[in-house]
Amino acid sequence: MAQVMRRAQGARRITTSFRNAEAGIWRTASRVAVLLPLTALVFAVTVLAIKARPAIVVNGWGFLSRSAWNGGQAYATTVNHIHGVAVPTGASYGAGPLLLGTAEAAVLAVIIALPISIGAAFALTERMPKWISQPLGFFVELLAGIPSVLFGLWGILVLGPFLATHIYPAIADNAPNVPVLNFFRGRGAVNGEGLATVGIVLALMIIPIITATTRDLFAQVPALPKEGGEALGMTDLEVARKVTIPWVRSGIIGATALGLGRALGETIAVAMISGAALTHGAYNIFGTFGTIAAAIVDELQSSATDATGFTTATLAELGLILAIVSVAVNLFARFIITRSSKIGAPLGA
To answer: Which domains does the chain have, with CATH numbers?
Structure first.
């Protein structure tokens, strides 16, 4: 009997030790999981900053506003030395048009995608029966898995030429020649390359992200406030505008920030459709332009011909700027979400 008791006590000690070890492992794994994304971000930004340091020293703050993009004499036997950095003779770079193009394309995509996404999410949750809404929601989510290169091919081979032939001329010919609206006048590339086509393609790419998130948010809105609004005589539009959307306002802002981040960093599709203009922004909504991400992928191979490595450092500087912009956009969205969440009852907001 005593032997059995000793064995039982030994088994309990082993079990207790295992549980304590399991708890410690779980705590450690949780801490690592929390710190890993931050560590990866800090590591990526640090590496970019180190690689970009020669370009930062030479280009200075004027890099953010200049519009030149000239690699200089990459095969010259002599190079210039500026602040101790070897630079090809005649090399001059500026990111002004690329910053402008990145902002234009991303904002245009969000302007197109946001109302469509909210309308689609509202229809899927409020207006359609489940036997229709569930398959449609599944197909909307499938759009998010389509590779961006396919969107780019479709945009340059199908959508762009169609719009340039049948839609863009009608808009350009009928747009008023007044400030702001004259941005819709003029002609673009015959194959449809330009800001408008990029904005439409990017909108199609971010619609699944915003729609799927917004649909889940709408599904969590309690039925009682909506029914109360209807009992007060509100129309369906008023219920959506004063009850449903305000109830999930902060979530919609977060979904929009996710879509904006995708649009800011999209590379292949934009590189295929934008027209790869590095030295100027879009002169009108149909004009060619460039973005930071597209410029990096377009110029990366040719940068290998620069024996000084200055062109590669400049591309790293572009990547660093894009990373900072993306983080800043997300932080700003988080600030708005925090402020929106402090607002009182959403009914009637």
So the answer is: 95-341 (1.10.3720.10)
